[in-house]
Amino acid sequence: MCYNKSMKMEKWINKFIGGVCSVYEANMFCFMPDDEVITFTYDEPTEANSEWKKFLKESFNFDLTNENVFTMSILHELGHHYTVDLFTDEEWTEQATEKALENVADSEYCQAYFNLPIEKKATEYAVSAYKQNETAMRKWNHRFNCAIRHYEKTHKIKSSLLTKF
Q1: Residue 3 counted as domain residue
Q2: Long-range contacts of range 7-16, CB-CB < 8 Å, 24 or more positions apart?
């Protein structure tokens, strides 16, 4: 089965992450530590994904593709949940101020963002979780991508997550 139309993406993600956080659709992928909330989007900037792809390859020898970008993005946000206690509240606040990924067209800016300790640790978690569970991850890639295609069809939009980057 490709996609259960009665199950919203939020429920698919919640099932994927084991219900450890609340999940909501928003305009970006994000983890909010105070509320234990993960947000997701259907329309991530292609430039940011291109830069993240480069970072993942250079830092972790991981290949980000259109097939796994959504899964990896959720795993990254889940990584924040599991690594939040490695940083003090002051470190989170300081890095959160720095980390607004606003200039996705600037490669140097993106690489500095991805190398912030809270970001790099969450990515490390995501890569490790993906590599340790590759068979299951491929199934989730398929489910999420089917859900994105269903969203595209019902909302008559084209998701950047399925666009080559």
Answers
A1: no
A2: 9/40, 9/144, 9/147, 9/151, 12/143, 12/144, 12/147, 13/38, 13/40, 13/74, 16/71, 16/74, 16/140
